[in-house]
Sequence to fold (464 residues):
Amino acid sequence: MIPVSAFAGKTVALFGLGGSGRATAEALIAGGAVLTAFDDNPSTVEAAARAAIPTGDLHRLDWTRVDALVLAPGVPLTHPKPHWSVDLARAAGVEIIGDIELFARERASRAPAAPFVAITGTNGKSTTTALIAHCLTHAGRDTQLGGNIGVAILTLEPPRADRFYVVECSSYQIDLAPGLRPSVGLLLNLSPDHLDRHGTMENYAAIKARLVGQSDTAVVGVDDPHCRAIADTLEAEGRALVRISKETPLADGVWYDGSAVIRSAGGETRARYALQGIGSLRGRHNGQNAAAAVAALSACGLSDAEIAMGLRTFPGLAHRMEEVARLGSVLFVNDSKATNADAAAPALAAFDRIHWIAGGLPKAGGIEPLAPLFAHVAKAYLIGEAAPLFAATLGDRVPYEIAGTLDVAVSRAARDAAASGAPEVVLLSPACASFDQFRNFEVRGAAFREAVERIPEIQLLRKG
Fold:
């Protein structure tokens, strides 16, 4: 835990007592803050009180005595309208911050030289964050991994000069962290997302831009117009900038050529990192993730050899194009995190002969956006509520059957893929939410692994 000493003896209101909120409350208490915590869910408040967290209705708080409101990132700050706790804080002139800001202040006071790599973007954040942390750890650096990736940042070890922090940041977290100031800040890409919480694409992009704008070294993907504009602005301001691309060769920057990541300067290749044969970094989208990691790791002082070895040994993230098993020439891939068509596209593009398990609770637009990739699908096995809709979309373009449930789909896909005798892939990439049959995408992915494990003579590559 990182005790939050910045608010020792000060009065702090906290709203949001989910996982990260509870961790934040405990860190504030450990640092000596006078805390009152609350949530709109009474059972959550009761659970926190039983855990010795001071709770109380923030409606009844004397806000003239409050030094800060610490807001959980899932609570609306601006759109569609500010949460009532935000209105109360603003009316009293109380600053509103989040757990990432608390970490930033502790780092600034305890160990301002502690290397801090912060990663944001619409897609690829978690993989890039995990990849950077893996490479640092593999190279022998004391590395702490947290943030939006699922580890509350204040549960990490306290800052010290030789300890590296690799932190995934959502737009919500950036919005609550005015003093972020990473050593290396990464902005991977931007596409419309969370506009219900930010109002417009321009607001969303401006929030993401804050992270790299406050960084000692900014790493920015330049494959979309919003990020290109942000990179150009940073360059015009004279900021230290590394451009990355998965599509375009860069005379100065780090880019992916379809098989390797190239680090260039002055139009010359300075280093080349081959990605061929690294299953966890398959696909052009992972080329961008690897390029971002290379840029960040170089800025952190790792050698080319250390970076190359880290890339080669990266196991990947569960449920994100996770290679789980083989049966002869058939590879089984868990991409349960693909909860819409855009998220499923990278996996469909990455393989040539796919036995595709798709379906669940359908999202707007269905799978029609994936039509250009249907040629990669040998056969589809449709599950869940979306099965009839997806069947109508596939029509006579792709052979399919309605399997209904995931275990049936795995069994039939494995049978058909093995029968060809050629290299084939059984791919769970549902392009749907999980909630018709599973609690979340993690449970769905675990069910896929379990079904695969029951196949006779299966060779497991990664145990869930």
